[in-house]
Amino acid sequence: MSGLVFLIGSPRSGTTLLGEQILMKHPGVKYIGEINHIWKYSNVYRRDEELGTAQLNRFNRKKIRAYFDSLLRENPGKLIVEKTPTNCLRIPFINALFPDAHYIFIYRNGYDTAMSLYREWSNTGKDAIDSAELRKSSLAKRLAVTVKQQLSLNKRIYDLIDLYESPYYFYRMFLFLMRNVFPSKTPLWGPRIPELSKIAKTNQLTDTCAIQWQYCMEKVLADEALIPEGHKITVRYENIIRNPEKEVGKIMAFLGEEKNADLKKMTASIVNRGPSVPARDKFSSSAQQLIDRTNAKMGYRSR
User: Fold this and answer.
1) Which of 110, 125, 184, 297 could cross-link to 119 by cystine, CB 3.0-4.6 Å?
2) Nearest 10 degrees: Cα torsion 196, 199, 200, 202
3) Where are the beta strands (DSSP E) in 24-133?
4) Count of structural domains, the chain
5) What does the buried/exposed string (b/e) look like for 266-282 if buried means 16 or more CB atoms within 10 Å of the residue's CB?
6) Would you say residue 58 lies in a domain?
7) Beta strands in 65-161, from DSSP E residues, in sequence order
8) pTM of the model as a whole
């Protein structure tokens, strides 16, 4: 198989693990991670990051298709595997652009995912731009890393629409700069679901993360029905951790690349730390109900 494969899951559900630590090790895969600015082209000033067919226009159709067409030309015979976690809010948008694409959906227990989101929101997670690990560095280094990761305008401004939307990226950079200078400030993190700012102001942080996760996964559960059988596979983070070679083997068979897959090499970095400890007591009763309801739809039992 060659063509486009989209890795879809909520943030902190294992998309980076599967994409960067596993799939990109396959010689037939060109992995592309976190191209949110491409997907948001001509829609960057929307209040939320959910995109449907109504947000498609002649400008972003041309821009996004040209981007992926160039990747396919530059990597003949390879699978282009793309992972942007916010795309869990954009399945109809992507499907309208690329109706022949294939999808890997990844699920993870809502309690574990929401707690991982909490660590990123509260800048204690190791992957946060202003993580606890990075905060041990000098202020100058933290600011330099923030500017480099948040701005990168040399890779983003190609036309007048890019230029028009560039203030958004300056503003985003400013928020993270302030977060590095004033640790008590917590800007919104992750996919901007509708009313996220209001949700964050009226809920404790763990509940905000639960609501954010639940909204993302309810969108996935509803919209993945748009993708025809044979063009999608669903995997669980927990199964990948417990039995990585078996689960990755299933994925490579789905992609038609099982013969060329060195499963032992691809999964060598996976560490099974055993079952996680339930974190129900970190959430309010209403948030627990949200997580339990969506978990059940995904096939997880209440813990």
Assistant:
1) 125
2) 160
3) 29-33, 79-83, 102-107
4) 2
5) bbeebeeeeeeeebeeb
6) yes
7) 79-83, 102-107
8) 0.86
